[in-house]
Amino acid sequence: xxxxxxxxxxxxxxxxxxxxxxxxxxxxxxxxxxxxxxxxxxxxxxxxxxxxxxxxxxxxxxxxxxxxxxxxxxxxxxxxxxxxxxxxxxxxxxxxxxxxxxxxxxxxxxxxxxxxxxxxxxxxxxxxxxxxxxxxxxxxxxxxxxxxxxxxxxxxxxxxxxxxxxxxxxxxxxxxxxxxxxxxxxxxxxxxxxxxxxxxxxxxxxxxxxxxxxxxxxxxxxxxxxxxxxxxxxxxxxxxxxxxxxxxxxxxxxxxxxxxxxxxxxxxxxxxxxxxxxxxxxxxxxxxxxxxxxxxxxxxxxxxxxxxxxxxxxxxxxxxxxxxxxxxxxxxxxxxxxxxxxxxxxxxxxxxxxxxxxxxxxxxxxxxxxxxxxxxxxxxxxxxxxxxxxxxxxxxxxxxxxxxxxxxxxxxxxxxxxxxxxxxxxxxxxxxxxxxxxxxxxxxxxxxxxxxxxxxxxxxxxxxxxxxxxxxxxxxxxxxxxxxxxxxxxxxxxxxxxxxxxxxxxxxxxxxxxxxxxxxxxxxxxxxxxxxxxxxxxxxxxxxxxxxxxxxxxxxxxxxxxxxxxxxxxxxxxxxxxxxxxxxxxxxxxxxxxxxxxxxxxxxxxxxxxxxxxxxxxxxxxxxxxxxxxxxxxxxxxxxxxxxxxxxxxxxxxxxxxxxxxxxxxxxxxxxxxxxxxxxxxxxxxxxxxxxxxxxxxxxxxxxxxxxxxxxxxxxxxxxxxxxxxxxxxxxxxxxxxxxxxxxxxxxxxxxxxxxxxxxxxxxxxxxxxxxxxxxxxxxxxxxxxxxxxxxxxxxxxxxxxxxxxxxxxxxxxxxx
Length: 817
Hints:
This protein is 5% helix and 36% strand. By secondary structure, it is mostly beta strands. Strands 24-23-30-26-27-28-29-25 form an eight-stranded mixed sheet, sandwiched between helices. Strands 1-36-35-34-33 form a five-stranded antiparallel sheet, with no helix packed on it. A five-stranded mixed sheet has the order 41-47-46-43-44.
C-alpha cells in the first residue's frame, strides 16, 4: 500500500525542502485533465484557465451583489495573462493586486487601484518587482506610526525565477497610492539555516508570504522562508527603510524546547511540515500569531516578544477525513483567520489533487512489492488514464533536464533514450511505456559543501519536474516516474518528494514520484545515499527496469475548517466544502475546486472565501457549525485567489477579490446576517482619487462582562462560584453563557442573566472527570470564557484564566482585580 512520508527529524524534514529550481515559479496548464497538487509553497495551479470552459461550474449570484470589476491593462504585456494575478491587499481607498509570473518572468509587480468609489474602480499605477522576481501570497498594507516613519506601508513577498534573483520582501510607502515609493527591496534572510539571520549570501532567500503589524511604537514583519527549516523569519521594521533581524524560528524546535509536541498527533497525508502563511492579531493585550503549518496543522503563538515566540495551542489532522471518509486526512493547512471575537478560527486547507495514489508497486523481479509514492504537482493523475491505472515496463533516463537555451539536453547530462531505441519489452494491453528520471541534480548553495555538486558526473543546474516531463514526452514516453535523489538525511530522510510544477503549455504527462530506494530496487541495485555520489554504484542511463503499477483513489479537493480556539488543542467544530468538490464527476475539466483563503468580518459572524473556480463563497459560522449563505460565479467563470473585506466611506461592508485570470472584483453580501452599515462622519469631496476617506467609525460593541480573577476552591457539590459583572454601558442587561475549559478538557458551562451595572456569583457545575483531575493535581488553571448580548442583541466576549483548588485544599490568597 502507499506509504506517507512522515516527518520525524530535522534531517528528514530538510530533505523535503526544495532548491529554488526544484519548484516552479509558475505552472502552466497541461490540458483539461491536469491535477495540480501544491506540495511546495511556490507552486500554484493554472488550471483556473479552464474556469471559462463550457464544462465549468454554472454562473450563480446567491445573496451577493456584484458592485464592479476591473481588469488592469497598464502592466507589462498589456492585458492580464491567465494566472497572472495573485493576492490582494486593501487599505483605506486602494486595492493592491499582486502580479505573479508567467514563462518569461517579466510581469512580476503589483497594480495599485483606486476604490474610493467602489462602483467605479480606477487603475492608478503598475509597480514592477525587481528583475526576475515576482510577488504572490500574503501582501499586506497597514498604517504605521513610529518615531522613524508615519504613513501607509505595503509589504510584498519576493519569489525569484533564477538563483541570482533576490527573494525576501519589499516595503513600499503607499501613503499616496497613485505613486507608491519603495522603502526597501530584496530585504530578508541572507543567512544559513542556523537560527541566526546572519548575512552570508548575496541575495535573500525566496519568501512566499508576509505579514506586517505594529505594537506600541515599534513595527514588525514576519515572512515565510521557502528554503529553511527555520522558516518563520521576523524583522523589526520600526524604520521600514532599514529592517533589522529579530530572529528565525523552526516551530517544531520551538515547540520541543517548550515541552510541546506539535508532531505527535496524526499529520496530514504526505507529512510535509512547513510554514505557508500567518497573521498576527492583538488578543487580550497580547500579540498573537496564527501560523498555517501545512500537514502539522494550525498553530497559535504568543509573539508579544517577537524574539521569543511561545506556543499557545495547535490543531492536528487526526482521524478519518470528515468530508470524504478517507482513512488519512489530506492536511495542507494553508491559511486561516481569527473570527471577530477570537473565539474561532476559519481555516483553509488548499488541495489541488482530488485523487491520491492508492497502491504503488514494483510488480516484477526480486524486489517486487509495495513502495511509497505521491502524485507530482502540475502532472496528470493516473486516474485520467483509460483504465485508471499506470502500469508497464521502465527504463532509466537520467536527470532529464533540458538545455538552458532550449536546444536539447543540457551539456553534462545524458539524453533520455528515445522510446523506440530503449529496448523496452513489448507492451501488454493497457500498459504504458514509463521512463524513470531522478530529481535534481543538486549543488548546495549553503553549508560545508557549498558549490560542490552532489553528483560530480552531473554538475549542471537542476530543473522542474515539468521540464523533465516535457523531455520525456518529446522522447516518446507515455508517463514519468520521478525518484528522489541523495539527500543529507540519507536513508532515514528518503521520501517520495520530487518537487513540483514547471509543465510547459501542451505537456500532458502522467507523473508519479517515489523514493530513492524505489529507484535502486527497480534496477536491481543496492540503495545508495552517499554524498558525493559513487557513480559506479548507480544505474546507467538506458538500463531497462522492472514493471510498476500505480492506482489512485478520489479524495476530493481542499476544504475549510472551523476551530474553537480555547484550550491547548483547538477543537474542530465543523468542516465545509462546496458540493462539487466531493463529487468525482467534477475531478477533471471544471477548474480548481479547492478553497484558497478566508477573510472574516469584523462585526458579524460571517466569512468570505476565495474558492478558485468555485467562485466567491460567504458562510455564517458558530457553535452549530458552518452554513453557506452566499455564492457567486461570473458568467465566464472565475478563478479567485485573494479576498479581503473593507468598509467604504459610506459605511457599507464590501468584499474585494482577486481573480487570477482577470483582476479585481468588488462585491456586497446582501443575505441574512449581513454586517450593518457603519455610521461615518461626512467628509469633504476628494480632490485626488487616491487620497483616503475619513475612517469609518466602529460599529456597536457588545457588553464585555467582567470576570473576577480571584482564585477559588470548588464546593463540596462540585460548584465553582465565579463573580461576573455586567457593565453599566450595556443596554438593560447581559444575557449569555459562561464556559470553563482546561487544555482540551471541557469542565462545565451554564447560562446567566445580569442587570446592567450589577454583579453576582455564577455557579458552574464541574463534571466528574474534571473534579477527579482537580483532586489529583491539587490545583488547576482554568480558562473562563463569557459570551453575552445586551437587550439590543449586540454580542461581546471576555476571557480570563483563574486558579481553582479542590474543596479540601486551602485556597490561595486572592489577588486584586
